[in-house]
Description:
By secondary structure, the protein is mainly beta. About 10% of the residues lie in helices and about 35% in strands. Strand 6 and strand 7 form a beta hairpin. The strands form four sheets. A five-stranded antiparallel sheet has the order 1-10-11-12-13, with no helix packed on it. The chain has a five-stranded mixed sheet with strand order 2-15-4-3-14. Strands 5-6-7 form a three-stranded antiparallel sheet.
Amino acid sequence: MLYEGKDSLQHYNITDYDLKDEQFHYGIGRERFPALLEPEFISVQEADSVWADTTRFILAYAGKDVKAYSVKDLTRHEVVNDVLNGEPIMAVYCILADLGAIYDRQYGDKELTFALSGYTYYDKEVWDGLDGFILWDRETESLWWPLIDKAVSGPLKGVELLEKDKANWEDTTWKAIKDNYPKAQVLKSGQDFERPKTWKTIDDVSSIVKNYSLKDD
């Protein structure tokens, strides 16, 4: 088990995991960062009084939906579980590795909910040895390392993280959003929620493993 404090129900089962014990850092507890599940948004007009033109944003778009997530807010949440044009996505940013991206959360007929495990991990052969956060999903309690884009333990070990096509998102500035996407929805700052003690898990993940595992696994 990967230790997560006094409550043993919070520990992660890492039997047969891909990582090395000595390369973990922190272990501050799962969901100490408030990864959002039902994010709230404001208009570009409202947000313009908050953000400077040079503020960095991760912007996602599909169909008529355009959603903007400031890197400042993403640094606090690390993960925002959201929906874009009817499809489950997540906006992710790791300040340690300066990694920001938009990922799908829909795996076939299964929707996953992601958050921070409380641990980071490094490998001198990956991203120049920078630390990167370890995610977990509530539905299977698998651990995921975005620096290699796959799950590294749990029922979904070897399954890939599904980064959205670059045609659907970009790393940009507040000025570019104002000028080009005046109808965008902008993530509201200062959100939080009470962390759950339990969550519903998926019993059968065979279809996910079969259809989304990396080929070299």
